[in-house]
Amino acid sequence: MEGRNLLLLVLTGLRIWLLPGAGASDDDHSEHTHRVSTSQCGEYSNQVLEDGMCRLIATLPQLDDQRCPDMFRCTDEVSYWLHENEERKQQILALRETVSELQEELRNHRHRVKVLELQTEEKNRVNSSLEQRFHELEEHYVEASTLLHIQGSLIYDLQAQIHNLTLLVEKVKRNPGCMINIVRTSPLISAQEALHPEVQHVRNCPIDCASIYYNGVRRSGVYTVVPSLGAMPVEVYCDMDTEGGGWTVIQRRQDGTVNFDRSWKEYKEGFGDLHSEYWLGNEHIHDLTSQGDYSLRIDLEDWNGKHKYALYQSFRVDDEDTQYRLHVSGHSGTAEDSFSWYHDKQGFSTPDTGNICAEISHGGWWYHQCFYANLNGIYYKGGRYSPKGRNPLGPDGIVWFTWKESDYYSLRKVSMMIRPRTFRPHLSP
């Protein structure tokens, strides 16, 4: 290039073009161009561009041993921009340091937030555990309170029973002849032996459930009584809940588990289970009702769960010589009378005695051509039944005609119980 070199320098905020001198002309520069010419070091020009950059154009001779003057000094504009660029560098460095510090502080904040989150989770777990424990303690407290209430009731009941037993023991001490509820008479003892002065009953023995009630026992269940005329102990079920209690239950039907198609001897002595279905026995019923004036209550329930009852002010059964003839009168209650008006003064019959009504009905009862009430018939589930294919001679269910007005409706539950006509319940044990 005619003994000249092209040198390009790029500085921050500054462009420098070193061009051959022969190719430069005045038309290549703007109106802000300054030109300098030297004989030994060539010439140069500078120009301020629109974007604020400084443009230098210089032509240099190739002089190996010639030292050129310092002619690359920028104009005021160039100095200004170099100064600005330096300040911006410093600002950028300061900003970088600030950003680095902020980043470090942010990392520290994040670490503290993470620690706080972990502490919060731990507190939440502790709180949840405490709440669950508190809930469990509440449940235990409720259970303990319930058990305490039950135990208190049991203790109160036991105290009442102990008090009643204490009174009974004191009574026995004063007249120790009756020990029947403590040591029962052996069933091997004959009736003649039982009449011996050493074993015959004493007047302070309970003669029925009303006597047991008056002795302070108010819980329904099975007890032993000694009828005053029979002198033989007999187990009975005492109803201490119905209409004041004191009832001696002589018959019950409730589920059909016991067959009531029995012989004369079985109806005489009794059969079944005192806790479910049974017939107490005609001989025991005679002994009980012959020691005073007794009332009879008959409770009825149909297959819809409806209840009715019939109450008779007077009830008595004669001895076996009269076929346990029935005496019943004085009806009242929610069930119309189907018993006294038709069956009063009738003797007892069973299928093996030759009575056609007992044979048709498959049970023992005070039949009279044949019945309007029959509580010892066949247990039919569901209520209405048909005798076809089983017994074409007539109905044989558990019947109370004036309630259902049908011989072919068998009741679901029935019971017969007696107590003294003069019985009056006590208000407190």
From TrEMBL:
<feature type="signal peptide">
    <location>
        <begin position="1"/>
        <end position="24"/>
    </location>
</feature>
<dbReference type="InterPro" id="IPR002181">
    <property type="entry name" value="Fibrinogen_a/b/g_C_dom"/>
</dbReference>
<dbReference type="GO" id="GO:0072377">
    <property type="term" value="P:blood coagulation, common pathway"/>
</dbReference>
<dbReference type="GO" id="GO:0030674">
    <property type="term" value="F:protein-macromolecule adaptor activity"/>
</dbReference>
<keyword id="KW-0175">Coiled coil</keyword>
<dbReference type="GO" id="GO:0070527">
    <property type="term" value="P:platelet aggregation"/>
</dbReference>
<dbReference type="GO" id="GO:0042730">
    <property type="term" value="P:fibrinolysis"/>
</dbReference>
<feature type="domain" description="Fibrinogen C-terminal">
    <location>
        <begin position="200"/>
        <end position="422"/>
    </location>
</feature>
<dbReference type="InterPro" id="IPR014716">
    <property type="entry name" value="Fibrinogen_a/b/g_C_1"/>
</dbReference>
<dbReference type="GO" id="GO:0005201">
    <property type="term" value="F:extracellular matrix structural constituent"/>
</dbReference>
<keyword id="KW-0732">Signal</keyword>
<keyword id="KW-0325">Glycoprotein</keyword>
<feature type="coiled-coil region">
    <location>
        <begin position="85"/>
        <end position="119"/>
    </location>
</feature>
<dbReference type="Pfam" id="PF00147">
    <property type="entry name" value="Fibrinogen_C"/>
</dbReference>
<dbReference type="InterPro" id="IPR020837">
    <property type="entry name" value="Fibrinogen_CS"/>
</dbReference>
<dbReference type="InterPro" id="IPR036056">
    <property type="entry name" value="Fibrinogen-like_C"/>
</dbReference>
<protein>
    <submittedName>
        <fullName>Fibrinogen-like protein 1</fullName>
    </submittedName>
</protein>
<keyword id="KW-1015">Disulfide bond</keyword>
<dbReference type="GO" id="GO:0034116">
    <property type="term" value="P:positive regulation of heterotypic cell-cell adhesion"/>
</dbReference>
<keyword id="KW-0964">Secreted</keyword>
<dbReference type="InterPro" id="IPR037579">
    <property type="entry name" value="FIB_ANG-like"/>
</dbReference>
<dbReference type="GO" id="GO:0005577">
    <property type="term" value="C:fibrinogen complex"/>
</dbReference>
